[in-house]
Amino acid sequence: MAEYNLERLNFLIVDDNKHMRALVTSILHALGVKNCIDAGDGADAFKELRHFPADIIICDWNMDPLDGLDFTRLVRTGKDSPNPFVPIIMLTGHTEMNRVVEARDAGVSEFLAKPISAKGLYSRVRSIIERPRPFVRAGLYFGPDRRRRDNPAYMGGERRKEAAVTEGGDEEAELSQDEVEALLNG
Amino acid sequence: MSDEDVQVIKPPNTLSAKVSKGGPGAVDLEAIERAEAVIAGMADNYLEWVEEDLVKLQKSYDGLIGDRDNAKERMETIFGIAHDMKGQGGSFNYDLMTILGNDLCRFIEDKETASDVDVEVIGLYVSAMKVVIAQRMEGDGGAAGTEVLNGLAAVVEKLTR
Asked: What is the ipTM of this complex?
């Protein structure tokens, strides 16, 4: 596993559950992160972004009044968004295929299933560092490119489509982390 | 949509300038292990949190029993609590809480109303989650854990057949 020093990165954690916020903060601190703030919902998080230059956002799904998807869309396409390109890790217990597709289409960069581990969280942060994805504007969508572009020599199939087909249309089937990766990264 | 309709933008890579590789402070295997140890060290906190959640879960369940006319809303509240419990248990080696929380969520997620059987099944899940915490059934809970899961599955199967 590549060893990165994270101490200069600013993290914004968004979760309505204070225990989850405490857990994620503790893990990040143990990994050497110094600058880490949190918010209890998407609206508060958006306010925080105005004065906190987050490098990575770790965001829950279910929150009121503004949930993780709405928040992601607001960050990506809001006229007053401070940083439409900021990487967003969706941290959620929802791992069904239709949910992952929905999160991807809102513009999340990475997906991490709860319950979390330190290794799992670091691996998602590492992916963001090592594989910054180009952004696309396509119709109503603006966000990380959902198609494979980084390797012109890639001769395999379209894993995103294959993952969908493999599931045989069972949109509520739970996905493994590998299947989630395939859906997110094309 | 044709490729002409797609605009590709390469965002500024600000992270690479702020992240160094290797050296003191880098996230090596030891740092990961330290972070996992920090999580393990929060197990006592988790037990406090989950006890609070169990109280909330029981209260919401009692609310469902007493207000079946608003079963959908009542079950949404139960879903929210169970979903949080699902998301936390496994991090603290309470995998059974993650399994039971998930099963409870799956059971109620599409329900618009709650039949007598539905209410009974939800109660069984709530009771099982309480047993797991009361008896500190960590990991897979061993033989007792298997008994809880299998016993619950058998009763649910019988009730919902």
From this structure: 0.88
